[in-house]
Amino acid sequence: MYKRRLHSLPGVKYVFAFAMNTREGQLNYHLVFASQHPLGLEKMKEAMKAVDKSGTYSFSDDSVGQELLPFDFDAPGVWAGRMQKALSGAWRGYDEFRDYALNETPFINPKAMLRHLSEENKIQVQWIGPPPRRGSFQEERIKEIRIEL
């Protein structure tokens, strides 16, 4: 609810909740970060990742009943599946995927999730100019992306 309220403020487009745990692994509080610009949330996520390089800090996903999910930057499959469900069907610009990654996943950008979906042949990309090597997602060269369900 708090995240929704922050999103309703003028100009606030990026909101993310970090679950802050005690050393024993129990939830202590949620650190909620809000920004009007994607770079603010990108920098916050980078800082959180730098604080705990092991990835044992958590992400609170309010869409699944405050379940605490570990930040696992080496396994984007779970997050790719969620992005697929949320954004499949329509052609969308890269910015929509970036915003989804920032607001709904532990990732700073959608590239690892797009790469995962590409390996499963679940996406189509309209490129500006010739297509780059498979699995490369140069955002400045992407016209639109469509995810298959």
What does this structure look like?
- The chain has 149 residues and is of the alpha+beta class.
- The protein has 2 domains: 1-71, no CATH class; 76-149.
- Helix content is 34%, strand content 24%.
- The chain is built from 5 helices and 6 strands; from the N terminus they run αββαββαααββ.
- The protein has a 4-stranded antiparallel beta sheet.
- Helix 3 crosses helix 5 (111-119).
- The longest helix has 14 residues, at 38-51.
- The chain is globular, with a radius of gyration of 16 Å.
- It starts with a helix and ends with a strand.
- The model is unreliable at 61-66 (pLDDT under 50).
- What is the rounded distance between the termini? 28 Å
Extract low-pLDDT stretches.
Answer: 61-66
Strand order of the largest sheet: 2-1-3-4
User: Strand percentage, roughly?
Assistant: 15-25%
Number of domains: 2
Structural class: alpha+beta
If you average the pLDDT, what whole number results?
A: 85
> Helicity level, as a percent range?
25-40%
How many helical elements?
A: 5
Count the E strands. 6
State Rg.
Answer: 16 Å
Main sheet specs = 4 strands, antiparallel
Helix-strand sequence:
HEEHEEHHHEE
Overall morphology: globular
For the structure shown, list the relevant keywords.
alpha+beta; single chain; 6 strands; 149 residues
